[in-house]
Amino acid sequence: MKNSSYTIILFYKYTDIEDPERFAQEQRIIATKLGLKGRSIVAKEGYNATFEGKNGNIEKYIEELLKDPRFKDTHFKKSEGTGSAFPKLSIKVREEIVSADLGKSDINPSKMTGKYITAEQLHDLIHSNKEFYIVDMRNDYEQNVGFFKNSILSGMKSFRDLPKTLEKLKDLKNKTIVTVCTGGVRCEKASGFLVANNFKDVYQLYGGIVTYMEKYPNEDFLGSLYVFDNRLVMGFNMDDPKREIVGKCFKCGAPSENFINCKDGYCHRHFIACIKCLKGEESMYCPVKCRNYKKEHKIPLKTKMVLGMDKFRTRIFNTNPLKLAFRNFYTSLIYS
Predict the structure, then answer these.
(1) 142 close to 226: Cβ distance less than 8 angstroms
(2) Range 103-244 has CATH code 3.40.50.1970
(3) Which pTM value belongs to this model?
């Protein structure tokens, strides 16, 4: 942050917010006044946010939020900004501050969650001879560019896949587990979910991976940290010769940390592609078969009805002789 006039903050707090709409509007007013950009989610269960702004204005925002007793012990993670990490300010109200969709199995981290372990304590544990397992609760594409050495990668496509991790971790129910994620918010529910499913000794990294990386750059966490802003990846002491690039081009396997989205409009797969394989283009098609985005994302019934009516209108328009004649005449005027 010494080399930039901008700071990015990442923070969350599970706390009761009785009127999320009102709280969200209050935060919009404050953030707009201070010229902040970024995104945040407000729910009855709490507040999850990441903002970028001028260094002084970020400090003013933190000072303002801390006036609310509910946020007095909030842990703010800071990193150097660019001034363009976010295109705009977005503060939305949702059912959850991190979407897990656990339904009846939902976890309230205020009542059930894993024990906290600090970056210093985890560092000591990593460099001890004790048996324990780091479980990375991030999405698979995040893990592609960085991870803790010898950690178990959940392989989740999204956080909604959390229940699928139970099968992968079933032999660790009586072992010591440390869950890790970017800033800590996902681990609040992920560790609580493991506890609820009879895992006996579950911890979560306090402050998340970003806090560990700041204290121990390029040491136990290999590669870079994926972030959900225009930077896409970040780290500390990025010019350090010890820094290892673990990301690999999806096509040729060369070391790379360059993320793109698949060129196919239905696929949108997020993957790493090196500059050489891109051949001067901004994007490319998946080196493997593109996923069927339409099958993975079910179309709501209301949308199906609208699409069905459109098809019906098209069919009538194409078969009615008078309408067909009108369409042909209109087309001839356009292209004559």
Answers:
(1) yes
(2) no
(3) 0.82
